[in-house]
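Class prep. Protein, please:
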Amino acid sequence: MPFQWLTRPFYALLRFIMPRDSPEMRVFSKATDVTSASSLLNSLKENLPFLKDGLGNILITQIEYCKCNKSSVWEHEFLLVTLKESVGSRRSSLLLVDRMMDNTKEYAGGQDELLTDIAKHQKEETIDMATDSSSSTESESGALPAAQQWDTPSRSQRSSAKLKKGGPPDALDELIILPNRNAIVRVLGNSPFDILMTMDLTQSRVTLERFAHLLRTTSRNTPQYHFIFAQCYWYAYTIWRVLETETQPGSIRKSDRADHQCSYSGGPGRLVLGKGKFVHIARAPETVKTQWEAERPAEDQEWAERRQALYEEAERAEECRRETEAALQAAQAEVHELRRELERYKRASHSANAV
């Protein structure tokens, strides 16, 4: 939902004026760092310490599905992700995964339009909470009525549910690196939130680079933000559901508010958004998972090439070091020989003078 956290521009600015940690420490930053999955992947692929020691060794151990409660302006949803090193100093870190709207001017003061759209959507669909609240048993791929289909990578139709002030704006899919859990409150602008569910991935070996790739795939699937069809609910739920079906996690702990996942109570009744039969097949978790898996061979090949290039560079540096050392030793030997020749000359000259 369009939950505008005004503190985020501050953290983005703070990033540039505060001293940075060493590049390889970015995901273990001591300061809040706002980035995106694409930017993080690009930086890691250029980061020699990560390619040498971090690749495959920084693991996702836990994901928490969170929802701002009713006391907040919007019932926003996001993911909290725990990282841990499996080697070395075994540091841990926390990521906040979130979707916002990247067009505040276009929709400034647009809450009435949003509520009108929600009411329209609610009238057009019959909500069956008993079947749609469970992320494990629901059907993800039921198509929407034709009137509710809009732009996706595979479609060119727009729906009557499109907001009046133009087409859907671009989404702002953020990956926020947090130094500790206390930083969550500051990033949320002191908005209270509940943890609906917790997924244990300690036995699944989901790496940082693989997880960031999933975030990027999800963002690219539907880069536009839409209040009804592709908002924070859809983004958080899709990532959660793909990991749930891909990894078969050790356990999922659910709170007594777990059935509020992807539901909005700001209108009359409670409305389900972003999952189940309210998501077109082009944006369903199964589709995103298929795209993610199809991209994996090329992504793995690029990581392998990056690491191979690192080893080749290291070998060239080692060869250069050996050549330099050999040249130095040869030069030192030559100097030593010249000194010996000079000493012999001095002795011969001294003997001649004595005679």
